């Protein structure tokens, strides 16, 4: 009887899977302009066996030379290839409309920027730093050097009715296997944890009242994000150097339906991944060239300072693990089997990103590449990475509607319960929180309190808007 019941349940799942529509991921390629500055992307540097041979609107061609033989590879996966002279506005107008429509209507969306160090990922997401420091105080003029983040903020405010919508923003960095809240001013409470479903918990949600609020957010993110100068991405007066962490920016949008007295929540994930690189290329001195993957994990366990080489090893490991998850999800979705993000093994980054490739978000990626002749192998690897994601088709899971007053009551109860649990633990273990397990448990309960409080804050903000609406 038990076996028959299990079999019938499996058949029901398979029948429901047949009715689910698979949505393809979109992968774009952006080519960095040529430079002659002596950096790792200098166009006059000697070449390697791989090189960028040419491109069209939807393809990239790489040349390969081995001994006396020559060949070429053409990649046709890009939805669009952005030439070196492509403007920030053009990139936004091609990539973002479908993603914004998805978030505004019924589902989450995620946009990733991936590529070698110094190819323009952060510039694509944020914009050129001088333009961000000299931002306009009005929403009527858009600086041509602005990236996706400020433009997206303007569009969300333009598309959504503010009387029945709450727009909040959050920012986290995944650095050395830890998640840090970049918008939390209290450094004792800036640690973010993943819950049992791989959702970030305990991070701050900042409600945006006007589009110009984004400038203070951007200033905090750029000032607090981990970065350092490398051979591939020099530190300058108007540039912080190479991003050494993966930065995730979350727009949380609550929309209220007056007719049905209900609301739904959607999120836009904007992820600026740290640069993929050969660790031996990034060093700025002999000290930074020392180390290995083994010493990187040893120092990570010990909490010791790492060299740029060791940081590069960890970055590559996380990107490689995410690529494995993409391939696994692709094979499972093709056979109409559900994909589940890793819960035990894997880093926080792979768990967080893995949760978004199971159908909860419409996916897109901008792969940034270099024209420099010495970066041919990195360009080849980036093309293969883009090929893997382009083959991923995910099922769609529209956001659910909830009754607002009921949700507020549940959040109040969850907050009170989390506070009581934390208080009881502090009374029982007063002065004895020295054991690592005790500190870890205490930290988890503090995270539960912050998470419940942040969720309640957004719901109450939506309630206030509804009550004050004409």
Automatic annotation (TrEMBL):
Species lineage: Eukaryota, Sar, Stramenopiles, Ochrophyta, Bacillariophyta
Region (Disordered): 422-446
Keywords associated with the record: ATP-binding, Microtubule, Motor protein, Nucleotide-binding
Organism encoding this protein: Seminavis robusta
UniProt key word Nucleus: no
GO molecular function, one term: ATP binding
Protein name: Kinesin-like protein
Keyword Nucleotide-binding: yes
Pfam families: Kinesin (PF00225)
Signal peptide boundaries: none
Family to which the UniProt record says this protein belongs: Belongs to the TRAFAC class myosin-kinesin ATPase superfamily. Kinesin family.
UniProt record, GO biological process: microtubule-based movement
Superkingdom field: Eukaryota
Domain Kinesin motor: 24-392
Chain positions recorded as ATP binding sites: 115-122
GO cellular component, one term: microtubule
